[in-house]
């Protein structure tokens, strides 16, 4: 979903040197901070949640000065946002692991239960040495940008539920992001991963109960 209003680009976007990763740490840190702020502002303005470091969008490509931010630099700036809690790599989801014996192909959960792997939320997943290998190489191709903090999204969901008297009601996650009940509200159009993580915060607070279905489309939430 895009915005009809014109996005206001920051001053540095018109300077070619900012499209090249700077070698001096102090300058590089400043550059990353500027790009991080731009990424968040751009995504918020256009209501974008998922970015690819290699896609052809104005954020990465300034045709006026004939400059393009290299995908490696975009990954670096997104990594800094991830470290700050403002983004998540979606490529870090459930991954298949291949046992080194090659005689047994196991899903990640069985490997984790056996102590052969350890999952962390987002980013790289550390594995015990010689226990398993990533089959996909862990490439960072899709990043979820949290231009709105998850606690703020959770608070908005709780406020909406209270305003509409949703106590003891059950809704599908798809309905909570795109159903008629949320049309015209700040919940409309929420990315599924943002919605799910915000609901998990509310579940930890005892305000909702998440439930799974046979398919992702059947996953839902009960408001308590």
From TrEMBL:
This is Vacuolar protein-sorting-associated protein 25. The keyword Transport applies. PANTHER family: VACUOLAR PROTEIN SORTING-ASSOCIATED PROTEIN VPS25 (PTHR13149), VACUOLAR PROTEIN-SORTING-ASSOCIATED PROTEIN 25 (PTHR13149:SF0). Keywords: Protein transport, Transport. It comes from the Eukaryota. Belongs to the VPS25 family. It holds the Pfam family ESCRT-II. InterPro entries: ESCRT-II_cplx_Vps25-sub, ESCRT-II_cplx_Vps25-sub_N, WH-like_DNA-bd_sf, WH_DNA-bd_sf. The keyword Cell cycle does not apply.
